[in-house]
Structures
1.
Amino acid sequence: MPKIKSLDELRNLRSQLKQEIKARTETSTTITVGMGTCGIAAGAREIMQAFLDELDRRQIDAHVVTTGCIGMCSKEPLVDIQQGDGPRITYGNLKPNMVPQIIEEHLIQGKVVSKWTVGQLAKEA
Amino acid sequence: MNGDRVNQIIDAYGGDRTSTLAMLQDIQREYNYLPREALELIARRLELPPGHVYQMATFFKAFSLSPKGEHICKVCLGTACHVKGGAIILEALEREFKVKSGSTTADGKLSVEGVRCLGACALAPIVVVDDEPHGQMSSDTSIKLVQEVVSGQVAKAPAPAEVKPAVVRAAVDLSAVPPAG
Amino acid sequence: MADLYRADVLISCLHGQSADLAPTFRQEIERRGMAGEVRVVETGCRGFCSVGPVVSIQPDGEFYVNVQPADVPEIVEETLVKGRPVQRLTYKEPTTRKSITKYDDIPFYGKQMRIVFRNTGLIDPQSIDEYIAVGGYEALGKVLTSMTPEEVIEEVKKSGLRGRGGAGFRTGRKWESTRKAKGDVKYVIANGDEGDPGAFMDRSLMEGDPHAVLEGMAIAGFAVGANQGYVYVRDEYPLAVKNLNLAIQQAHEYGLLGEDILGSGFAFDIGIVRGAGAFVCGESSALMQSLEGKVGEPRSKHVHATDRGLWDRPSCLNNVETLANIPVIMLRGAEWFASIGTENSKGTKGFCLVGKIRNPGLIEVPMGMTLKEIIYDIGGGPPRGRKVKAVQTGGPSGGCIPTSRLDLAVDYETLSQAGSMMGSGGMIALDDRTCMVDISRFFLEFLKDESCGKCAPCREGIKRMLEILTAISNGDAKMGDIDTLETLAKTVQAASLCGLGKSAPNPVLSTLQYFRQEYEQHITEKFCPSGVCRSLVAYVVVDDKCKGCGLCIKVCSQESIAGSAKQPHVIDQATCIQCGACFDACRFDAIQVIPRSQVELLPKQEVHA
């Protein structure tokens, strides 16, 4: 194990390590994957893995969580993305190959990929 | 007692007098008590008066000068365990196994002792059998546990149901008890 | 480098019976093909001990209690696969029986404020990486690269931090005295010799977040000018010793201990010394004697340890909880810390809330919270049908505060004025089944065993007080004895050598102050209303209330109770040992405590065993 020789090195190490326990620290972006039985049956696990891989590859700070059935089972797999206090955007009928484009356009450029969205929920009071 | 083993322990601390306490702890752990020969050996090796080593061995509660039983049952008598009946458990064990607190049964199988706080007060009363802590015990469960350990029925932890903390589920169970009458 | 996981399963209660849980979880997760996305982490104490082993699933924070290996497949299936809580295992609010799924929604946690225990239960204590990931050692880095020792001391002084081990001495002043003391070689000592029966915060801290203690020590070392530190740990805490050892080793590998830390030129090393079961070694001078490899007897304090302590060198001794506050103060600033708490007691305090209470466990609250809030809102009040009678704080050096004064705010001065003390943080709820004479006797018996015997007032005084208390609880005392007890107590308080002796009479004095009539009742009526002092009481069945359910027959270890179903039961006074198990078990208040002298007046009853 290499010695840490300065405060800057310590900080660098920290930012690397932070990724590892990300699941336990809140970030401003939350990606919620619907993982009810129907979602899983529709392939939500692959979608979630695709999000995790892509976020890791691009070193993006986001919080991936799972949730139960959202209710629109015919549109599974469903994924919600919420940035800060902004609206919660729901994408439906996702396939793993759509994930990189969503991350590129939605998270990085800030443009909702409207052709794949199924609905928009205002922030709950 | 094996003189080589004691010498090893002394050497592990570089024969340093300031580590006398640590050496005694290691010997206690190895033999479950401090054999007289070991104390004499430490005194010789560290060039300390035997009385000095004896003083340490009798001052600290962690040490015993007589051998302990094959199994050791410690009943916590800290404050939380006291108010929740630790002393009653100790008495019940004394009666059941015909042994006084702080001593060993005639067959050398079991030592029973009362100890001060083991630091698991929220699970009071605590009984520790062979270093395995058990929480929320009663006289009955303790006796049963010790019987099982002594007779070799349980190698380690008992069935979880025996020691399961009762707070949450007991409340559920209680409501399930049909009202008498 | 970093593998990303979607969820972490955090398992705590390493002290209890959770050893099998982690392997079971790992197996099940592997079996379901989720090994790459869910990680199992064993963490330290979450403080909610009465319901352990406790498992929480992050990031959603589902929180399961009393988890057994057999529950694992269901948790994995429902929560990790389907994202649903397992209602059966969630925590249920004792009063409403409402099921609560999320950790933060549980009232037990809601009122708490976690500074010292910021990481316990959230990070893996055996991983320095996790500690660094949550900002660990950043405070040390900041101090070493941008502050002078004087500035560090100034910051600690401004924060208002006081010693968490008992007396509440101002930490900044202690550091300053050590800094100013003459000598090239100085020491920092962390006191983890948690000897108070009924307290286990220090254990949880050393087990659950050992690096926080080490970082605090290194900062202290820099501030006072020491290059060597020692942690003195109770030998009864094997896991704390293990995790501290591992933490020291990891910190060395990263260069966060040892020579030239973070390129600053500052060198600091830490060693661990195990205690051996002597309460008096929690006292600073006795602890240092013991560190030197001698018998732990206190010495007279005309010379302060900050001038001549360990091996006659200037030594700065702080409690481990005090030290764990330091990194946070350095990072967030003295003003922030000083904004928490009361005028003279800043920050938070960890307490071990135990005894006759629904939610016993480890809690951390801002100074100034009232005892009432702690006992009822966090602790959930006393168990079914019982009443809180008093709260004991400060261990054997503290006292009992009666229910009528539960609106007291918890800080150093308020507790002292009420005849108790903050102490190291034991807080024991006593109910109407606790006898105040017995509790005094309990503490004095403890202190008699633990008195080192060096000075006469403590050695002899405690013994004589114990004799009087024993006579009172056996019914052999006369009225004047209470006055003798009080005089003795005040003498021991005034004349003893060390803090242990000076505070030893506190349990007696505080119970006399608030519960004198209970002492008198033992003497004049020869009766112990709590049913604890056995020679004075008898247990009898109240016929109209007894439903004949047979529960008391089951719990009686003496087989002294007989009776057929649905008929009033009878206790055989000849064989009854007055343990009170039947009283505690009965759900219909059908068992009554009466003075022993009245047993002969009872109508003769046949007992059919």
Note: The interface with chain A takes residues 1-8, 36-37, 39, 58-60, 81-84, 122-123, 129-130, 132-135, 137-138, 141-142, 144-145, 253-256, 262-263 of chain C (CB under 8 Å).
2.
Amino acid sequence: MMLQMSGVHAHYGHIHALQGVDVSVQVGEVVTLIGANGAGKSTLLMSLFGQPRASAGRIIFDGEDITRLQTHDISRRGISLVPEGRRIFPRMTVMENLQMGAVLADPANLHVDLKRMFALFPILEERCEQRAGTLSGGEQQMLAIARALMSRPKLLLLDEPSLGLAPLYIKKIFQTIRELNRDHGMTILLIEQNAHHALRAAHRGYVLQHGQIILSGTGKELLASPEVRAAYLEGGHGAAGK
Amino acid sequence: MSAPVYAHEAPTAAERVKDALAVAFVALLLGIPMIGLTTVDQGGSLVVATRWSWLAAFAAACFVGRLVLRFSLDTLTRRRTARQRAAGAKTVKIAGASRLVSTIGWVAVAFSLLLPIVFSDNRYVVDTATTVLIYVMLGWGLNVVVGLAGLLDLGHVAFYAVGAYAYALLSTQFGWGFWTALPVAALISAAFGVVLGWPSLRLRGDYLAIVTLGFGEIIRVVLNNWTSLSGGPNGVTSIPRPTFFGLAFKPPGDTPTFAGFFGLDFSPGHRIVFLYYVILVLCLLTNVFVTRLRKLPVGRAWEAVREDEIACKALGMNVTNVKLSAFVLGAMLGGVAGVFFAARQGFISPESFTFNESAIILAIVVLGGMGSQLGVVLASLVLVLLPELGRDFAEYRMLLFGTAMILIMIWRPGGILSKREPTLRHVKDGGRA
């Protein structure tokens, strides 16, 4: 078991954003978490990092209880986050962004890792001396993923990687996710609003609504499930729509 | 300057003129002490005379020269890119602006090394240059905090004061020399940086600004009122001056003196020039140190924290420690400037460490272009020399000062030098392009 969240609660001030969620990720799996805006998806991801800290429940990563650890200590255990909205360092160059991803890694690996990233995203090598803020949205997303991979994480967390991207880039991003998992054995926890793409890329999925897991199953099962279809795939007019 | 990222996109005529104007402006600034002011012998005494027409000609020559230079450089790079394109290469060139900056930097270093020799009998020029360098030092210290780490510090003067008083008290009470007290005073300032930074760096933006502003005031008020330690408003007097390897700059007496040792006639100018070189060396060391740090992961981490704190946390950085390291380094450099200030003045009082000073130092960093080392130098020149030049206008000089600041902010909102130098280069392998 790579990650096990059991009975996790989290609060933002008075808002009870997570109300006892159980999520697990096996080694080598792609797991997705879908849900509408405000369902608590990002909160769940951030509570893994202690931002906000889980007010109840336990988070076990790689056999170790990380519930009470400091944010930077948690990511040092081997969890890497591609944050929502990419959050690259806009005034720094692509190269510098990548190097910041490896800030805790062994400097001896830097060159090899850079080469891996440039093989994965050739566009980044072309743009490597450009300021990251001048990249297009899709390129920035690739940079954010590459930056997260530079630390050689055991678990990669992606928060809405397709948000605001052109369809072509969305395809490319999901293709990359599959490739990372299939060819590099990367374990991935993916948060998405784009349920269709996410469920097709994932082995298993969870549906989050009002801070609770209301449904879980394999990607195929969820894709076929009438609730999911009604709420997330066919216009979102159903009960869980808003 | 306004250099395009892609060298093959030819700049428009307006861009060229703007770029050349920028160069002419820099030339104008540098030219004020070099060409604009000179000394003439008038009935046995030296007086400062101005040569504004020469200066204008110099600036005009730089303007034209820059236009020609840029045009020929652009033509060259265009040809080269065309050739590279033909060869299928896709590398993007970063245009010549960075080269220009480093050239100006080296010219400035050479000029500042030669300045006391050129103006060896002009005490006023060397003295003013020393003041400029103190502000450069303060600006570089604050630049690490504000420009690189993005922490708005409105109380930088507190560390300047701590350094100054640390040296003043160590030397007058315990008889320490300048060179032994310098590192100790720097450490004391750094310690104050830790004390202030540790609890307050968890705050963001404006809250941190308020805390640092308060800290600056607290230090000043304490110095004003703790009479038994600091002498209160009377300050500390007769602070010993730095010595040259134990040789004092005094008229011949019972102790060995600089003039006596080297067989020179005693002149008070020796000390002025010596002080100038001391601060110059301190500045150059600071510059080398900060430039090196910027190219290490620590320095990049500062900038990354400025850009996006949350992303930094997600990458496993201990953001508090990163911010603290920048803050403490800034405090330490401020302390070093303070030590020098105390040693140069020989007298300090809380009046020298008002909020006004903090504001000027911050203005130097912002006007210079956040994070730019050379920008700090140019802004220090503007902000120190403008009031000096404006002395003739008496009550209007602050008006002049304010107008200049507004003009710079309109003309270059990112500061005089806002272009950021990449700290890492990627060497492409032969196979891939």
Note: Confidence is low (pLDDT under 50) at residues 1-8, 88-95 of chain B.
